[in-house]
Automatic annotation (TrEMBL):
InterPro entries per the UniProt record, alphabetical: Cation-dep_OMT (IPR050362), SAM-dependent_MTases_sf (IPR029063), SAM_O-MeTrfase (IPR002935)
Superkingdom of this protein's organism: Eukaryota
GO molecular function: O-methyltransferase activity; S-adenosylmethionine-dependent methyltransferase activity
Taxon lineage: Eukaryota, Viridiplantae, Chlorophyta, core chlorophytes, Trebouxiophyceae
Biological-process GO terms, alphabetical: methylation
Family: Belongs to the class I-like SAM-binding methyltransferase superfamily. Cation-dependent O-methyltransferase family.
Keywords: Methyltransferase, S-adenosyl-L-methionine, Transferase
Protein name, as recorded: Caffeoyl-CoA O-methyltransferase
Length: 144
């Protein structure tokens, strides 16, 4: 994503674990994009809330990618809807969850969270919803 940014473009990377951020940092440097990336270490809900505390950040992001704890997706989606501009896209990873979402009998909490999220996104009139069946499924929600 950072490689696709135009000059002056900026990417905010959130993770609660410093280890993947440290690994990612090596590759940002190798790719020559480290100066475009701002790290936020901590729970994603808190990092996003900190961004929302600045009104200048509202409706300002072109694109967001959610790929973390499945039960948190719905809350991150609501926060990101406020940060992404109209016409911007929120991509949500894992929405097919290796096919498990198609099985109502799957009772584990991650599958249930993704089943509920898909039902919600499909009906959410604030976005145009597409589900791309690559990998284990990616939802593309374009903010109206
Ligand atoms: C599947 S990995 C993401 C990989 C990343 N999208 C990539 O392509 O390199 C999931 C990440 O979510 C992070 N994570 C899980 N729960 C989180 C939370 N509540 N807040 C922030 N990050 C979280 C984990 O530490 C882990 O690094």
């Amino acid at each position: 994503m950072a490689l696709a940014l135009p000059p002056g473009g900026r990417l905010v990377a959130c993770d609660r674990d410093p280890r993947p951020l440290a690994l990612a940092r090596e590759y940002w440097a190798k790719a020559g994009v480290a100066d475009k990336i701002e790290e936020r270490l901590g729970a994603a809900s808190e990092s996003l809330e900190a961004l929302l505390a600045d009104p200048a950040q509202h409706n300002s992001y072109d694109f967001a990618f959610i790929d973390a704890d499945k039960k948190g997706y719905r809350a991150y989606y609501e926060q990101l809807l406020r940060l992404v501009r109209p016409g911007g896209v929120i991509a949500v990873d894992n929405v097919l969850w290796y096919g498990r979402v198609a099985h109502p009998e799957e009772a584990d909490k991650n599958t249930a969270a993704l089943q509920e999220l898909n039902d919600f996104l499909l009906k959410d009139e604030r976005v145009a919803f597409s589900l791309v069946p690559v990998g284990d499924g990616m939802a593309l929600c374009t903010k109206r």
